[in-house]
Amino acid sequence: MKHIAWIIVLLFPFTLFAQKAERKNLREGNKLYNDEKYTEAEISYRRSLEVNPTSEQGIFNLGNALYKQEKYNEAGEQYKMSAQMQKDPIQAAAAWHNLGNISSQAKDYAKSIEAYKQALRLNPNDDETRYNLVLAQKLLQEQQNQQNQDQQDDQQQENKEDQNDQNQNQQQQNQDQNQDEQNQQQQQDQQMSRENAEQILEALQQDEKATQERVTKEQMQQVKQKITDKDW
Predict the structure, then answer these.
(1) Looking at per-residue confidence, does 193 or 74 come out higher?
(2) CA-CA-CA-CA torsion for 197, 200, 206, 207, nearest 10 degrees?
(3) How far apart are CA 130 and CA 117, in angstroms?
(4) Phi-psi category of 172—alpha, beta or left, where left has phi over 0 and alpha has psi -120 to 50?
(5) Per residue in 1-16, pLDDT tens?
(6) Which among 128, 127, 109, 129 has a CA at the least distance from the CA of 119?
(7) Quick check: 141 pLDDT over 80?
(8) Which of 71, 86, 108, 177 could hold 91 in an S-S bridge, CB 3.0 to 4.6 Å?
(9) pTM for this prediction
């Protein structure tokens, strides 16, 4: 028993020292926070949590210092811990309220609405939370309307692009068809030109042959007449 009592005697001063160090760092953090020195306040709050990692006040205040530095993800983690650990419903409601603010900051209004509702369950008389809830609901409706409009615009643009593609494809097909018809007509014209040339050449040859035969015939008649008319 003497041995156990001796240990208790040693631990008790250490506990008092830890409590003093925690309170000292919290006070310093609060002063720095009120002076808007949020980075320095964060350091003091973290020091207090090194002494007492389950300090409800230290966790909540660290979340506030992080929030003021726009470190929203880190602040959210502290507020979640605070909301789960707080025994005082008013303090827990404040943590949920701040979680709602972080979600609204990220435009995640559905999530912020749930956080504000949870805060109001713990503290129904908080008018600021009620106002933020109504605002988040309004912003969520506007966001959904905008998303629907964007989807309609995207669909219309997609339909327009598809129609343009179809028109271009049809135009290209028409051009290809016209070109094929022109090529076919040109080939036919060339074939007809060759045939016409052959016909003309053949006609000329026939005319020349007929002319040659006529000339030959006339020459033969002249010779025959000369022979007939000779005076013997």
Answers:
(1) 74
(2) -140
(3) 8
(4) alpha
(5) 344 444 444 444 446 6
(6) 129
(7) yes
(8) 86
(9) 0.62
